[in-house]
Amino acid sequence: MHHDDNLTADRSTFVSHLECSMTGERYAADQLHGLSRAGRPLLVRYDLERVKDALTPEILADRPADLWKYRELLPVRHSANIVSLGESATPIMPLLREPGNVWVKDEGRLPTGSFKARGLVMAIAMAKELGVTTIAMPTNGNAGAAAAAYAARAGIEAVIFCPDDTPEINVREIAAQGARVYRVNGLIDDCGKLVGAGKEKRGWFDLSTLKEPYRIEGKKTMGLELAEQFGWALPDAIFYPTGGGTGLIGMWKAFDEMEALGWIGSKRPRMYAVQAEGCAPIVRAFEAGERHAVRWEDAHTVAAGIRVPQAVGDFLILDAVRASGGKALAVSDAALVQAVEDAGKKDGLLLCPEGGATLAAYRDALAAGLVDAEEKVVLFNCATGLKYPLADRSAFLDRHAPVDWDAL
Ligand SMILES: *Cc1c(COP(=O)(O)O)cnc(C)c1O
User: Fold this and answer.
1) Domain limits, the chain
2) Chain mean position to CA 359
3) Which fold has domain 92-113+214-387?
4) Which atom from ligand 1 is nearest to the alpha carbon of 241?
5) Would you list the DSSP string of 292-314?
6) What residues flank ligand 1, with Cβ below 6 Å?
7) pLDDT tens digits for 53-98?
């Protein structure tokens, strides 16, 4: 890569090239890319030796606590292309009523109410930087909402396809943020096929999970932020609700980059990929010792964000889980719904169903001795519980009738 000194002042990043996650084949940065020639995700590589001189934990400590503080490890070249809706660092809170030493990183505080904002703010900024005018994507809800919001902000057109049973709030939210949204009678990978066809027919840029290189970089900030918030020490175990797996793959990449920078050592958290029993392709492949996962037929779960029958980054998820000494775990819808209810009632934390799945899996793991009570464990709650239908458990009170105070 040549180095253009005229851009140095505005150049706050150190991308050297892109690389196929399967074959290692190199690709030039600063060009529009989808998947690699092998049909696999591309990973962004940085000149980490130079980053080491430019960025230290001390410098980071003085910056505002948001996603862009890690800009030397992010792909956007020109700060003018940054589209932001205020991606503040998310809090990590202990669950006081659960046994053990378990914490929730609450990603529901991000713009558009989910951690999809981390990935999509980066993908859209890069689309803008590389001259894209229309993006298209399949979604189970939250990704489409984040894509719509950041595309509107960047002045990019967005066309979004979602399964027709996508949570109503998401479908409306996508449209409210300026995108054209279509309900499709199929699952997310069926929607993905429409995007693929539209890419050929209409020239849309395909923003599907892992089909462009930059969502991983945005999601990677979860790993950077986690390490920084815990004083550059990682927890013993991480429970991650796994659909396409972008966040798990991104955090795993962040850990390697931080080690190369000397910010952390070689110890890694055990990564637990959590899925729903009604859609658990990664769990099935993990248990079978496979590196790739076969499509899960008739996928069903109330946790829409992890209803992903097939993931293009399956081997990256499975490699990371195995290398970490973790596991892929499935939980029932009944268990995840119970976990959501418990966290809300007992800890005052309204989880999304996918976040509930991580708590349910943690409970199972603790009972099975996979984690022990002294170990520090982090669960990812990926969206605000307010985006999901809540049961009405109120009772009516007639203020004109005599009130039975003892019954209240
Ligand atoms: C997208 C999503 C997930 C899955 O995230 P991946 O990184 O794609 O595996 C989990 N929970 C919620 C709420 C989501 O929106």
Assistant:
1) 5-67, 92-113+214-387, 116-206
2) 17
3) Rossmann fold (3.40.50)
4) 10
5) S-PPPTT---S-GGG--S--TTH
6) 114, 116, 142-143, 209, 241-247, 305-306, 352, 354, 382-383
7) 999 999 999 999 999 999 999 999 998 999 999 999 999 999 999 9
